[in-house]
Amino acid sequence: MTRLDRWLVALGVGSRSQVQKLVKSGAVQVNGQPARDPSQSFAGDEALTLHGTPLDGRLTRHVMLHKPAGLLTAARDKKQPIVMDLLPPAYSSLGCMPVGRLDKDTTGLLLLTTDGELNHRLLAPGRHVDKTYRAAVDGPLTDEHVAAFAAGLHLSDFDAQPAALNILSSGAAESVALVTVHEGKFHQIKRMFEAVGRHVTALHRLTFGSLTLDEALAPGEWRELTEAELTALYHDAQMKETL
């Protein structure tokens, strides 16, 4: 239980003083009744409305987003558009942050969560949470490339751990493959292909651990995770689910 005004501030409704004025004016209702005392206790599972409009009172959020090209995976940036621009302002207020990063030109599955520990654990290399990408590259791919990825690749500043490369098509001008890694270092997949003489022309993330990109989501669209998806992700992170 916490004070109603503190809860509303956490939801991004306004500053402490703004929220207190809203409550005292009767603009906020809890379970259908005006809540005129900013200090009243609030548990989070009550029906909450603001100016008669239902307000999502959950402080915990978990989101699947189909990232389009052209957006930075960042919480804020003064000069360029970011993925957080696709979500309602309340998500930023609650600290809903991307889990890892996708390059500006990379598309596909992006997970965002308010659970900092879940975020950290899903990214820890020692937990081997796999991420699968579909990559288009210039030139042919061969079994030699598959073996090189499986052995791990030495890059300029670190050794990329072994990764699975599954060739879907190979041609003189372009090839397409699935790449599965459990790291997520800066430009890693692009750099791994560069190390074997291939340049990535398109990169799209399909899976993150147990989570698979919902085909119904168009680029730029998002939805909350289902309970089954969330339970599986906490299992990936070897954590007990928090509500």
Number of strands: 17
Main beta sheet strand tally, sense and closure: 9 strands, mixed
H and E order: EHHEEEEEEHEEHEHEEEEHEEEH
Number of helices: 7
* Radius of gyration, taken over Cα atoms and rounded to an integer in Å: 22 Å
Gap from first CA to last CA: 14 Å
Mean pLDDT: 93
Please identify the structural class as seen in this structure. alpha+beta
Low-confidence stretches: none
Global geometry: elongated
How much of the sequence lies in strands comes to 25-35%
Amount of helix? 10-25%
Summarize this, please?
With 243 residues, the protein is α+β, with helices and mostly antiparallel strands.
What would you note in describing this structure?
The protein has 243 residues and is an alpha+beta fold. The protein has 7 helices and 17 strands. Strands 7, 8, 9, 10, 13, 14, 15, 16 and 17 form a 9-stranded mixed β-sheet that branches. The protein has a 4-stranded antiparallel β-sheet with strand order 3-2-5-6. Strands 1-4 form a two-stranded antiparallel sheet. The radius of gyration is 22 Å and the shape is elongated. The mean pLDDT is 93.
Secondary structure layout:
Blueprint: E1 2-3, H1 4-10, H2 16-24, E2 28-30, E3 33-34, E4 41-42, E5 48-50, E6 53-54, E7 62-67, H3 89-93, E8 97-98, E9 107-113, H4 116-123, E10 131-138, H5 143-151, E11 153-154, E12 159-160, E13 164-170, E14 174-181, H6 188-195, E15 200-208, E16 211-212, E17 222-224, H7 227-236
Parallel strand pairs: 9-15
Antiparallel strand pairs: 1-4, 2-3, 2-5, 5-6, 7-9, 7-17, 8-9, 10-14, 10-15, 11-12, 13-14, 15-16
Helix pairs in contact: 1-2
